[in-house]
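About this split. The held-out portion is used to measure sequence recovery: a designer receives only the structure tokens and must propose an amino acid at every position. Recovery is the fraction of positions where the proposal matches the reference. Here is one held-out target exactly as it appears in the evaluation file.
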């Protein structure tokens, strides 16, 4: 219930800040806690954790050279929501595959099964450019901590399908690793609306 209320609150704040009081949309909100330290405003950021991609290469988001990130959390043997989310991630991939300002990262939450070889085969079966869309793994504690910082619920549950319970949220992160929006990856209409959110961030970040 706590996670549900937390995510519902984020959605409401996002809507209110984006629409504002007038007719013109405002800048996208910064999701998460904000701290004021003297004259500085410190926003919630995604940590720069070392991961391993589908080609066995070390991967850190600090190496992305100020790109916008579209991220999700999944596992390759997921029988329920993951195939639906990947279908929507493919829509995002098709829309932004030629835009060098955007990268996509899918984080596996099943380190036992999803080896580098499994991730490589999974990416190959999707037919995507892995320079554009990375499939990454890492230590379990690091991945679960990272999911929390992305505002994605991930729980290892032996009673859940294939042992994990997680949300299908797709997260938008700006060049400074700040979370700026999300959509429900199981809902095609939510993803369609998300296109506009991504486009707005691109305009704001690169104008």
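Reference sequence for scoring:
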């Amino acid at each position: 219930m706590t996670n549900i209320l937390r995510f519902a609150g984020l959605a409401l704040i996002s809507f209110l800040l984006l629409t504002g009081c007038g007719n013109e949309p405002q800048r996208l909100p910064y999701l998460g806690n904000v701290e004021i330290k003297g004259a500085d405003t410190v926003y919630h950021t995604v940590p720069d954790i070392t991961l391993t991609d589908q080609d066995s290469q070390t991967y850190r988001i600090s190496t992305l050279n100020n790109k916008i990130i579209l991220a999700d959390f999944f596992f390759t043997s997921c029988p329920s929501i993951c195939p639906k989310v990947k279908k929507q991630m493919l829509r995002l991939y098709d829309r932004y595959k030629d835009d060098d300002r955007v990268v996509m990262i899918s984080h596996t939450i099943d380190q036992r099964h999803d080896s580098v070889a499994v991730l490589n085969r999974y990416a190959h079966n999707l037919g995507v450019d892995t320079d554009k869309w990375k499939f990454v793994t890492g230590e379990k504690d690091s991945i679960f901590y990272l999911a929390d910082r992305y505002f994605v619920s991930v729980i290892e549950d032996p009673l859940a399908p294939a042992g994990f319970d997680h949300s299908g949220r797709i997260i938008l992160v700006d060049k400074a690793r700040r979370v700026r929006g999300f959509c429900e990856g199981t809902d095609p209409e939510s993803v369609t609306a998300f296109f506009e959110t991504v486009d707005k961030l691109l305009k704001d970040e690169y104008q």
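Annotator remark: The longest helix spans residues 188-206.
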